[in-house]
Amino acid sequence: MPHTATGHLPGRQVHKFGGSSLADPNCYRRVAGLIEQESDPRALIVVSAAGKTTNRLLQVLELSEAGDDAVVAAIQGLRAYQLALIEGVLDGPARQALSLQLMEDIDTIAGVLKKNYDRHERNGILANGEVWSARLLAALLTERGNQASWLDARRFLSAEEGALARVNEALSREKLREVLAGTGEQRVVVTGFIAADNEGRTLLLGRNGSDYSATLLGALAEAESTAIWSDVAGVYSADPRCVKDAKLLERLSLAEANELARLGAPVLHSRTLQPLLHKYHYILGCRMRWLDQRQFRH
Ligand code: ASP
Ligand code: MG
């Protein structure tokens, strides 16, 4: 297969699955089935933390910072939830390996909480949710007979700290090319939400930032399309919870979609469309099976 001028294999797809699509073992299996059916065998799959994991991690931090003993139970709850996912999803040897890695990560979190951690280490704790879901989904895909691995976005997504982290696209593209070189015919599950500064410290892309991770990755990898799968029907003409005759839009322009995002429509994170704006003219909103997707054709 020929490489493009930038060294990327052309035609890769990006697919993104959010936390509520990965909330329990059945969700993981459904997502794995969808990936097998709907994505090309070299697709890049972006994931968020499973279910409410980021909220749980935040709660752990807040309880710890308040000196509240309830932090112990909160950590136990987090571990029990993640362990139940691993045990409910995997059968083979990866099950034990991932359980052990989870225990180590929980120990690391507890160790960081005991000392005077800085904001980057705090971000590092919040980043665990995406690491856990990427690791688990890649293991499940492998167990089902697919070629798959997972990739920590901090290895290529390079940003500077700011009110909103500013991504260095040129550097990130270069690093992505390096980490994907030689991955060949396999799906790579990538952590959403997280990036790193030039010293490798963790930066976050904002709550619900994984949609933005997905469109960024689509632009960086020169993907053929970016599909954001979600468990809502799509984009409506108005908030369907408040406006009774809100219509599901068949199609909307990128400019309209960006305006909705900018105004804070919860269906689109405010920066999701930025990586597409200078290049693409429209997005499609189309309904599909149990999950609906908003697909951005590049
Ligand atoms: N897990 C992160 C959050 O809950 C990012 C995301 O879900 O997109 O905000
Ligand atoms: Mg989310």
Keywords:
single chain, 298 residues, alpha/beta, Carbamate kinase, eight-stranded mixed beta sheet, two-stranded antiparallel ribbon, 10 helices, globular, disordered N terminus, binds aspartic acid, binds magnesium ion
Task: Provide a quick synopsis of the model.
The protein is α/β, with parallel strands linked by helices and 298 residues long.
Architecture overview:
A hairpin with a 5-residue loop joins strand 7 and strand 8. This protein has helices at residues 25-38, 53-65, 70-89, 94-114, 119-126, 128-143, 169-180, 210-220, 254-262, 274-277, and strands spanning 13-17, 44-47, 148-151, 159-160, 166-167, 187-191, 194-196, 202-204, 225-230, 251-253, 282-286, 292-297. With 298 residues, the chain is an alpha/beta fold. It has one domain (13-230): Carbamate kinase, CATH 3.40.1160.10. The protein binds aspartic acid and magnesium ion. Aspartic acid binds next to loops.
List the domain count as a whole number: 1
- Sheet with most strands: 8 strands, mixed
Residue share in helix: 40-55%
**What is the straight-line distance between the termini?**
20 Å
Task: Bin the strand percentage.
Answer: 15-25%
Mean pLDDT: 87
Ligands bound to this protein structure:
aspartic acid, magnesium ion
Task: List the secondary-structure elements in sequence, H or E.
Answer: EHEHHHHHEEEHEEEHEEHHEE
Q: Report the CATH architecture.
A: 3-Layer(aba) Sandwich
Question: What Rg is obtained from the alpha carbons, in whole angstroms?
Answer: 19 Å
Q: Can you tell me the overall shape? A: globular
What structural category do the secondary elements indicate?
alpha/beta
CATH topology: Carbamate kinase
